[in-house]
Task: structure prediction
Amino acid sequence: MKRRRFLQNVALGLPAISCMPSLLLSCKKEELFDDSSFSGSVAIVGAGAAGMYAAYLLNGQNVKVKIYEASDNYGGRIRPLKNFSDFTIELGAEEIRGNNSLWYDLIASTNAEFVTAGLTDFYFVDSLLKPEGEMTGDGDFLHLREIVDNLANYSGADINAQIYGNIAGIAGRIEPIYNAWVGNDYGTSNARVGMAGIQESKNLWASGNNKYRLLHRDLFSIIEERFSSILGQIHLNTPIVSIDYSSSKIKLMSEGGEKFEADRVIVTVPLRILFDNVIDFIPNLPPLHLQSLSNIGMDKGIKIILRFSSRFWNDNTYRIYGSSLVPLFWAPGSGGKSSANDVLTAFVMGEKAEQLDSLGDTMITTILAELDQIFGNNVASSTLVGHHIMNWGDDPYIRGAYSYPKPGTGNARALLAEPISDKVFFAGEATHTGGHFGTVQGAMESALRAVSQVLKT
Ligand SMILES: Cc1cc2nc3c(=O)[nH]c(=O)nc-3n(C[C@H](O)[C@H](O)[C@H](O)COP(=O)(O)OP(=O)(O)OC[C@H]3O[C@@H](n4cnc5c(N)ncnc54)[C@H](O)[C@@H]3O)c2cc1C
Result:
């Protein structure tokens, strides 16, 4: 059976007919689902993409499953902002990264359409805003592109990307673009992301290089539609504060003191929640799990959504690369998503997110000043009509953007994904070992792996 078809079947809960080693580790289809004699109950902690997909798969196997979600809604880092402009804005995941994944296939199984319009990226370099086409005559830019295109072939020490940039001779005038393409894209800054992890993830990446956006829908509506059968099993407003796996029945307790029992638990909370010891594991997490939590990064990340009374950027603009605190802006309504196309999103991760965060609400003035510098004539500050700050580091149940490799991350994700005593299982983007960490497909694929592990017990 072709890979695409296999993925589609699994996504739709149909029996899988062959095994995808890259996706399911080393397994046979019989081992994954059909030969399962597991008849116990499963508690899932967290109702993001991983938790919802895990519940969906377990439902398909008639396993009793309940999801406990801390916040007042499901979706996790898939979160819509409605009624801000004439289209729904994505506060978290936005682009579908590649068309060769469970996630893409799940979307394709709805009637959702993708943006197909050809759009242009712009770069603010040497105090001038230049379209992509003009940059192709810039030697420093071409040199940077060659370096970034070859990150999969990196073979040096596990230094950070900033040091590597210096060694590789990336020109200072082009360095903000390097940070936007690499550090910021990995959810941090060049000074924090590790070269070995970048190299490995580029080699393991299997879902394709094109990026897609939905035309008239939002990602939340997709998971709501495709996972409708499990929505009734989600207990919202139920932050889990302890998981006692010391006896045969696992006992979970919520912040409000409610007690739940299950035979297995799949923990899908973001890395920071585990790192900050929000959940008291009894007995404690094993030393290798604890160590791996420190070896994987997850920084602050902010999306600032800005709406203007009139558009001052070209209608065909997609991304605008800045040169100061905001590495990257884009027009989320471009390509036909919005008739007004009056919104810009600022996407700021890592060190720059920390700097912006320290400004509090005055970060808006700073960002507008940057746009005024790029477009001139105070055009941004004089036409702003609304803003929304989504500071993921401040969300008490997320506490950051998404996981990234630090220098020295090594096999930390594999260690974190190890089940404990065949009772406690881990899923979520940070536990993905095949290069798709930090993405929705990574979260779903990790859920598939955790469910197969549960069913084998
Ligand atoms: C700004 C931003 C932009 C992104 N852009 C993209 C993109 O373009 N493309 C892409 O593919 N991915 C993107 N991502 C990453 C993607 O959103 C995530 O990788 C994915 O959604 C993570 O899913 P998850 O299930 O692992 O975790 P989550 O979605 O975080 O789900 C975990 C759930 O656990 C809950 N929880 C936490 N603590 C507890 C507790 N104690 N008890 C019970 N529940 C708890 C949380 O409330 C949350 O709902 C982006 C993320 C961010 C933040």
User: Anything to note?
Assistant: The first strand starts at residue 41 and ends at 45. Confidence is low (pLDDT under 50) at residues 1-31. The chain is about 30% helix and 20% strand. The CA atoms of residues 301 and 349 lie 4 Å apart.
